[in-house]
Amino acid sequence: MGNIFLEFKKFALKGSVIDLAVGIIIGAAFNSIVQSLVNDIIMPPVGFVTGDVDFSEFFVVLGTGQFDTLAEAKEAGVATINYGIFINNVISFLVVALVIFFLIRGINRLRERQAEEPKVTVTTRPCPFCFSEISRKATRCPHCTSKVELYVDDQV
Questions:
Q1: In angstroms, rounded to a whole number, what is the distance separating the alpha carbons of residues 80 and 46?
Q2: 8 A C-beta contact, residue 135 and residue 151
Q3: What is the CATH number of the domain that holds 74?
């Protein structure tokens, strides 16, 4: 029994499991922001353009009866196909996908910039005799006047 507890503790405290838990919590918080964006910002203008139509009230009654709102149909216990809610969920998905796309795009651009940074070229080297910094192309040290050899890659 103690062995299983230690295994579970080792699994649960791995960095990837903790990162996943943090990701799920942030994702849930992000979901509420996206839902508010869709319901409070995007859908009202869409409804205004379409004649003040509320997509969440689009439904088809399966069976008999005439209902003006989805709430009335649900209260009567009638089966419905709620395609308006589906439309809202599709729009929510598209907004989330778009935000994630721009987020990943920004991260990739930052990575590209880091990869494109020029490598520093070394233009000096230490003198093997006095250890002063001299040019890589120097054949004599300006400090101690010792004759030094060129680096192999500096020779023409």
A1: 24
A2: no
A3: 1.10.1200
- pTM of structure: 0.51
pLDDT tens digits, one per residue of 90-140? 887 887 788 778 878 988 898 888 777 677 788 899 999 999 999 888 889
Q: Which residues pair with 134 in a beta bridge?
A: 125
Rounded Cα distance, 63 and 36, in Å: 33
How far apart, in whole angstroms, are the C-alpha atoms of residue 76 and residue 78? 6
Q: Are residues 137 and 101 in the same domain?
A: no
Give the DSSP letter of residue 114: H
Helices 15-36 and 83-116 pack at an angle, to 10 degrees, of: 130
Report the distance separating Cα 39 and Cα 54, nearest Å: 10
User: Are 65 and 50 in contact, with CB atoms under 8 Å apart?
Assistant: no
- For the stretch 13-48, pLDDT in tens is 776 777 888 888 888 888 888 778 877 887 778 778
31 and 59 both lie in a single domain: yes
22/56 same-domain check: yes
- Angle at alpha carbon of residue 85, lines to 93 and 39, rounded to 5°: 65
